[in-house]
Fold these 2 entries.
Entry 1:
Amino acid sequence: MKLVVGNFKMNLLKDDILLYLDSLNDSKMTFSNVVFCPPHIYLSEFINRGYTVGSQDISMEEGGPYTGDVSARQLKSIGVTYAIIGHSERRKFYNDNKYVSKKIKMCCDNGLVPILCIGENQNDYNNAQTKNILMHEIDEALEGVLNINNLYIAYEPIWAIGSGIIPCIDEIDDIVKFIKEYVYNKYRFNIKVLYGGSVSLKNIDELLKINSTDGYLVGGESLNSIKFCQLISKINKI
Ligand code: PGA
């Protein structure tokens, strides 16, 4: 089954979350291959109802005087399973390029499954630099990481995030295979690769034609429970 990760980003208020959870319950669907990534403050609402959750980020530190941070260990202790690492928004606004490998190590040391986000910007894409950027981001993230046994990489072209535009399916297929091969040849382990960036009900039929992807990282379309459930049903039907 393909993994479906819903990244809520910094959206929805408490009442919205409760309505969202009611609607998941009413759908009578099973969500065994779905990971909900709401803001930290709502994680327990999902965990308490039996859903699998991921955090949108973690601290690069183990614990201690880091005001505002939440550690991998703390997240694990409340029942979090996955962690998104190096999302392009964190790279852009919080300089996360520098911290991805520390954060990946924190995940490994504390039993969280990292979902490492990588992707080129519009300029790199136009200049056919995509693969170079991806190799660089992978190497930067895996530097010194020794004990990884479960890693997802989300290929998210930055220009596709929130834009409604996606690469053509041949391009995605090629990149997904490239990422798997590159990691296997260089680091000798098999990873799973997700596609992210404007995944929606409008393009999911097209995206489902790509066999190489192991799932999807969904932003905007995961915020509406009805649409997200429809998306999950389509993905699970194939
Ligand atoms: P989007 O976001 O689906 O709204 O493009 C995806 C993401 O940023 O993870």
Entry 2:
Amino acid sequence: MAINNHPPGTQTDFDAVEVFLTETLVPEARNLRAVVERADDEGMPRIEVMPNHGKLLELLVQMIHARRVLEIGTLGGYSTIWLASGLQPGGTVVSLELEPRHAEVAAESIAAAGLRDRAEIRVGPALDTLTELGRSGADPFDLIFIDADKENIPAYIDAAVELARPGAVLILDNAVWHGAILNPDSADEAAIGVRRGLEAIGRHPRLTATAIQTVGSKGWDGFAIALVT
Ligand code: SAH
Ligand code: DHB
Ligand code: MG
């Protein structure tokens, strides 16, 4: 329902607003275009977070004075760089990536951004690496960003809570998945993974959460944000 007789926006409007918001509030995103271009040149998918979402990640890291950040799904390192940029001095992002080539490209971009000593990429299936992190008694994380394969989201949420300190922030990308989460019988495994992930967050005894719908150049999607209690 529209308010005050404003017509609903179109995709063209959403794109134009995204450009305006990014140019007005997030001018530093210009400096990160090369990161996306490098990944694009490598034939990697254009599924990184939007600039205004990347800046939200940086802001959240800054707002909670995070020193240890965990990311699940590195791709070309675009979101990794936003997360690393918000860290307190001496802080680290540990980013988990299945594809060795993605990890290599990301490492190049992270180094080019001058953040080599603030990010560590661990290659392999994230579920395995999460288990290793738990077994090795890794220091707890202050913020965890989940943005890899959607089928495993429920398992990533459980693992994330285990690896988080009380008071940590958990962020889930693609929380709306073009609305496909509404269909509990969807044939889309990703849609089912996101929906079950949201349900798992909603009933988790240690999580209190919300989600916001977003629009922009990547279409209709959302971010879920949870606090680990
Ligand atoms: N966070 C990135 C985008 C990540 S895209 C950004 O916003 O810039 C999702 C990434 O998850 C891809 O690089 C994909 O290779 C990786 N991925 C898929 N399945 C995975 C798994 N099981 N374990 C770890 N990474 C996985
Ligand atoms: C897509 C977008 C994402 O942010 C992601 O993590 C995976 C896929 C997509 O639009 O297909
Ligand atoms: Mg995503």
